[in-house]
Design goal:
heterodimer, A: mainly beta, six-stranded mixed sheet, four-stranded antiparallel sheet, 0% helix, B: mainly beta, seven-stranded mixed sheet, globular
Chain lengths: 113, 116
Protein backbone atom coordinates (compact mmCIF):
# COMPACT_ATOMS: atom_id res chain seq x y z
CA UNK A 1 0.00 0.00 0.00
CA UNK A 2 1.09 3.52 -0.72
CA UNK A 3 1.91 5.86 2.13
CA UNK A 4 3.49 9.21 2.75
CA UNK A 5 5.12 10.46 5.95
CA UNK A 6 5.74 14.05 6.89
CA UNK A 7 7.58 13.75 10.20
CA UNK A 8 7.26 17.39 11.22
CA UNK A 9 3.95 18.95 12.21
CA UNK A 10 5.50 22.42 12.07
CA UNK A 11 8.62 24.03 10.68
CA UNK A 12 9.68 27.47 11.85
CA UNK A 13 12.20 29.54 9.92
CA UNK A 14 13.24 33.17 9.77
CA UNK A 15 12.66 35.15 6.62
CA UNK A 16 15.63 34.95 4.29
CA UNK A 17 16.85 31.64 5.67
CA UNK A 18 16.67 28.39 3.74
CA UNK A 19 13.80 26.05 4.50
CA UNK A 20 13.27 22.31 4.23
CA UNK A 21 10.02 20.41 4.65
CA UNK A 22 10.58 16.68 4.88
CA UNK A 23 8.71 13.88 3.14
CA UNK A 24 9.28 10.16 2.81
CA UNK A 25 7.17 7.74 0.84
CA UNK A 26 6.37 4.10 0.32
CA UNK A 27 5.05 2.79 -2.98
CA UNK A 28 5.26 -0.54 -4.74
CA UNK A 29 6.18 0.66 -8.20
CA UNK A 30 7.65 3.80 -9.62
CA UNK A 31 6.54 6.78 -7.56
CA UNK A 32 4.92 9.90 -8.88
CA UNK A 33 5.55 12.49 -6.19
CA UNK A 34 3.89 15.84 -5.66
CA UNK A 35 3.97 18.84 -3.36
CA UNK A 36 0.94 21.01 -2.75
CA UNK A 37 0.41 24.12 -0.63
CA UNK A 38 -2.80 25.12 1.11
CA UNK A 39 -3.70 28.53 2.46
CA UNK A 40 -6.46 28.86 5.10
CA UNK A 41 -9.91 27.85 3.85
CA UNK A 42 -8.60 27.32 0.34
CA UNK A 43 -8.08 24.37 -1.93
CA UNK A 44 -4.70 22.94 -2.72
CA UNK A 45 -2.28 24.59 -5.10
CA UNK A 46 0.21 22.52 -7.05
CA UNK A 47 3.88 23.34 -6.43
CA UNK A 48 5.89 20.70 -8.22
CA UNK A 49 6.13 17.06 -9.18
CA UNK A 50 8.68 14.35 -9.79
CA UNK A 51 7.96 11.86 -12.53
CA UNK A 52 11.31 10.79 -13.89
CA UNK A 53 14.64 12.26 -14.90
CA UNK A 54 16.62 14.80 -12.94
CA UNK A 55 16.34 14.22 -9.21
CA UNK A 56 16.16 17.95 -8.50
CA UNK A 57 12.80 19.34 -9.49
CA UNK A 58 12.06 23.03 -9.65
CA UNK A 59 8.56 24.34 -9.13
CA UNK A 60 6.44 27.36 -8.44
CA UNK A 61 7.36 30.32 -6.19
CA UNK A 62 11.04 29.36 -6.03
CA UNK A 63 10.45 25.97 -4.43
CA UNK A 64 12.37 22.87 -5.38
CA UNK A 65 12.45 19.27 -4.23
CA UNK A 66 15.02 16.53 -4.39
CA UNK A 67 14.05 12.96 -5.14
CA UNK A 68 16.23 10.42 -3.34
CA UNK A 69 15.38 6.89 -4.31
CA UNK A 70 17.68 5.16 -1.82
CA UNK A 71 16.21 7.12 1.07
CA UNK A 72 12.69 7.15 -0.43
CA UNK A 73 12.51 10.85 0.27
CA UNK A 74 11.24 13.90 -1.55
CA UNK A 75 12.06 16.90 0.64
CA UNK A 76 10.78 20.33 -0.30
CA UNK A 77 13.30 23.15 -0.20
CA UNK A 78 13.64 26.86 -0.80
CA UNK A 79 16.90 28.84 -0.58
CA UNK A 80 15.37 31.94 0.96
CA UNK A 81 12.04 31.87 2.80
CA UNK A 82 9.43 34.59 2.59
CA UNK A 83 6.77 35.44 5.18
CA UNK A 84 4.20 34.80 2.46
CA UNK A 85 5.40 31.19 2.25
CA UNK A 86 3.70 30.54 5.59
CA UNK A 87 1.06 27.89 4.87
CA UNK A 88 0.25 24.20 5.13
CA UNK A 89 2.30 21.95 2.86
CA UNK A 90 1.34 18.49 1.70
CA UNK A 91 3.45 15.81 0.11
CA UNK A 92 1.57 13.24 -1.98
CA UNK A 93 2.24 10.09 -3.99
CA UNK A 94 0.52 7.93 -6.54
CA UNK A 95 1.80 4.88 -8.39
CA UNK A 96 -0.48 4.60 -11.36
CA UNK A 97 -3.05 6.42 -13.39
CA UNK A 98 -6.62 6.49 -12.21
CA UNK A 99 -5.73 6.35 -8.56
CA UNK A 100 -6.09 9.11 -6.07
CA UNK A 101 -3.20 10.91 -4.55
CA UNK A 102 -2.28 9.71 -1.09
CA UNK A 103 -1.36 12.62 1.14
CA UNK A 104 0.93 13.05 4.08
CA UNK A 105 -0.53 14.64 7.20
CA UNK A 106 0.80 18.03 6.26
CA UNK A 107 3.44 20.34 7.67
CA UNK A 108 2.71 23.88 8.77
CA UNK A 109 5.44 26.24 7.67
CA UNK A 110 5.78 29.43 9.68
CA UNK A 111 8.16 32.09 8.41
CA UNK A 112 8.87 34.95 10.80
CA UNK A 113 10.00 38.41 9.79
CA UNK B 1 -3.06 25.18 -15.36
CA UNK B 2 -6.36 23.39 -15.46
CA UNK B 3 -9.21 24.74 -13.37
CA UNK B 4 -11.60 22.87 -11.14
CA UNK B 5 -14.55 24.67 -9.59
CA UNK B 6 -16.75 23.75 -6.67
CA UNK B 7 -20.15 25.04 -5.75
CA UNK B 8 -21.17 26.17 -3.24
CA UNK B 9 -18.09 27.43 -1.45
CA UNK B 10 -19.89 27.51 1.85
CA UNK B 11 -23.18 26.02 3.04
CA UNK B 12 -24.99 25.98 6.35
CA UNK B 13 -27.87 23.58 6.77
CA UNK B 14 -30.11 22.12 9.43
CA UNK B 15 -29.60 18.65 10.77
CA UNK B 16 -31.53 16.08 8.75
CA UNK B 17 -31.41 17.92 5.44
CA UNK B 18 -29.43 16.94 2.36
CA UNK B 19 -26.76 19.03 0.69
CA UNK B 20 -25.39 18.71 -2.83
CA UNK B 21 -21.89 19.85 -3.76
CA UNK B 22 -20.86 20.20 -7.40
CA UNK B 23 -17.37 19.74 -8.80
CA UNK B 24 -16.60 20.79 -12.36
CA UNK B 25 -13.49 20.58 -14.49
CA UNK B 26 -13.68 23.76 -16.54
CA UNK B 27 -11.14 23.26 -19.31
CA UNK B 28 -10.40 19.58 -19.47
CA UNK B 29 -12.20 16.27 -19.39
CA UNK B 30 -11.84 14.23 -16.26
CA UNK B 31 -12.63 10.57 -16.49
CA UNK B 32 -11.93 10.30 -12.80
CA UNK B 33 -12.65 12.71 -10.01
CA UNK B 34 -11.87 12.34 -6.36
CA UNK B 35 -13.63 13.52 -3.21
CA UNK B 36 -11.69 14.32 -0.07
CA UNK B 37 -12.68 15.42 3.39
CA UNK B 38 -10.47 17.58 5.53
CA UNK B 39 -10.81 18.30 9.23
CA UNK B 40 -9.22 21.44 10.68
CA UNK B 41 -5.45 21.40 10.45
CA UNK B 42 -5.45 17.83 9.24
CA UNK B 43 -4.66 16.05 6.03
CA UNK B 44 -7.01 15.25 3.21
CA UNK B 45 -8.76 11.93 3.62
CA UNK B 46 -9.90 10.28 0.43
CA UNK B 47 -13.60 9.49 0.56
CA UNK B 48 -14.27 8.08 -2.87
CA UNK B 49 -13.12 7.82 -6.43
CA UNK B 50 -15.71 8.86 -8.96
CA UNK B 51 -15.61 7.42 -12.47
CA UNK B 52 -17.70 8.86 -15.25
CA UNK B 53 -20.63 6.61 -16.10
CA UNK B 54 -20.08 4.10 -13.35
CA UNK B 55 -20.51 3.71 -9.62
CA UNK B 56 -18.10 5.42 -7.32
CA UNK B 57 -15.54 3.47 -5.35
CA UNK B 58 -15.69 4.32 -1.67
CA UNK B 59 -12.88 4.10 0.82
CA UNK B 60 -13.24 1.88 3.82
CA UNK B 61 -15.35 3.47 6.51
CA UNK B 62 -17.17 5.87 4.20
CA UNK B 63 -20.92 5.27 4.08
CA UNK B 64 -21.97 5.14 0.45
CA UNK B 65 -25.62 5.63 1.31
CA UNK B 66 -24.82 8.77 3.20
CA UNK B 67 -22.37 10.29 0.75
CA UNK B 68 -23.94 9.84 -2.67
CA UNK B 69 -21.63 10.47 -5.59
CA UNK B 70 -22.71 10.92 -9.16
CA UNK B 71 -20.39 11.43 -12.12
CA UNK B 72 -22.77 12.05 -14.98
CA UNK B 73 -20.36 13.63 -17.42
CA UNK B 74 -16.65 14.07 -18.05
CA UNK B 75 -16.73 17.49 -16.45
CA UNK B 76 -19.14 17.15 -13.54
CA UNK B 77 -19.26 15.12 -10.36
CA UNK B 78 -21.60 15.73 -7.45
CA UNK B 79 -21.44 14.76 -3.80
CA UNK B 80 -24.70 14.68 -1.86
CA UNK B 81 -24.55 14.49 1.90
CA UNK B 82 -27.85 12.92 2.85
CA UNK B 83 -29.55 13.48 6.20
CA UNK B 84 -26.66 15.60 7.35
CA UNK B 85 -25.70 15.72 11.01
CA UNK B 86 -23.32 18.02 12.90
CA UNK B 87 -20.54 15.43 12.71
CA UNK B 88 -20.65 15.77 8.91
CA UNK B 89 -19.48 19.35 9.23
CA UNK B 90 -16.18 19.55 7.43
CA UNK B 91 -14.27 20.93 4.47
CA UNK B 92 -14.98 18.89 1.34
CA UNK B 93 -12.55 19.11 -1.55
CA UNK B 94 -12.79 17.56 -4.99
CA UNK B 95 -10.04 17.00 -7.49
CA UNK B 96 -9.71 15.88 -11.07
CA UNK B 97 -6.92 14.68 -13.25
CA UNK B 98 -6.53 14.53 -17.02
CA UNK B 99 -5.86 10.88 -16.48
CA UNK B 100 -2.20 10.02 -16.73
CA UNK B 101 -0.36 9.10 -13.55
CA UNK B 102 2.24 11.73 -14.26
CA UNK B 103 -0.33 14.47 -14.30
CA UNK B 104 -0.98 16.37 -11.16
CA UNK B 105 -4.47 16.46 -9.77
CA UNK B 106 -6.18 19.79 -9.89
CA UNK B 107 -8.14 20.70 -6.84
CA UNK B 108 -11.29 22.64 -6.38
CA UNK B 109 -11.37 25.47 -3.84
CA UNK B 110 -13.33 23.38 -1.36
CA UNK B 111 -16.76 23.57 0.24
CA UNK B 112 -17.19 24.38 3.90
CA UNK B 113 -20.22 22.48 5.22
CA UNK B 114 -21.68 23.42 8.57
CA UNK B 115 -24.57 21.36 9.91
CA UNK B 116 -26.49 22.96 12.76
Amino acid sequence: AQSVAQPEDQVNVAEGNPLTVKCTYSVSGNPYLFWYVQYPNRGLQFLLKYITGDNLVKGSYGFEAEFNKSQTSFHLKKPSALVSDSALYFCAVRDQAGTALIFGKGTTLSVSS
Amino acid sequence: GAVVSQHPSRVICKSGTSVKIECRSLDFQATTMFWYRQFPKQSLMLMATSNEGSKATYEQGVEKDKFLINHASLTLSTLTVTSAHPEDSSFYICSASPGLAMNEQFFGPGTRLTVL
